[in-house]
Amino acid sequence: MLYRQTPVKTSIDAVGLERVGDEVDALLLFWEAAFLPLTWPDRLQLLEQIDEELHRGWRHAPTSEAISQALTERLIDGFGRPAIQCRDQADVYGNSRHPSDREAASLWRKQGDRSTSVTVDGTKGVYAPSDGPLET
C-alpha cells in the first residue's frame, strides 16, 4: 500500500515543483469529478491506483510522491475537509501534503473509539484544518 502515515520528505528543485504543480492541476481536471461520489474505501483504492501509475510514469520517487501528496491535499480541499470517521479516510488524509491532515489522521488512529471523528485539537467532533501543527 502506497498510502502511509507520514509521507516521505521530498527534495525537488524549483523547476521540479513547477512540474509537480502542473501535473497536479492536470490530474485534478481529469479525476476530481470522479472522486466526489465515491466512498472513502473507493477513494483510497483509486488514489492507490493513481499512485502506481505516477510511480511507473515518473520513475523518480521524490517527484511522484510530491505529486501524490499534493493531489491528495487538493482532493481533500475539494471534499470540504470532512471529519475523519473511518480508517480508509484516515489513510487518505495521512498521504496529504498538509501537516494538519496527516496529524488529524494520526490522532484518529490513536483514539480507541473508532466511531467518532477528530478535530484539529484532538477532541471528538468536526475536523477543521489549521495552518499549523495540531496540539495534543
Task: Describe the model.
- With 136 residues, this protein is mainly alpha-helical.
- It has five helices and no strands.
Provide keyphrases for this structure.
136 residues, mainly alpha, 59% helix, globular, disordered C terminus
In short:
This protein is mainly α and 136 residues long. The chain has helices spanning 14-35, 40-58, 61-79, 87-94, 99-110.
| Rg over alpha carbons | 15 Å
Principal-axes geometry comes out as: globular
- C-alpha termini separation: 28 Å
> Which regions have little confidence, pLDDT < 50, spanning 5+ residues?
1-12, 126-136
Query: How many H/I helices?
Result: 5
Main sheet specs: none
Explain the layout of strands and helices.
Blueprint: H1 14-35, H2 40-58, H3 61-79, H4 87-94, H5 99-110
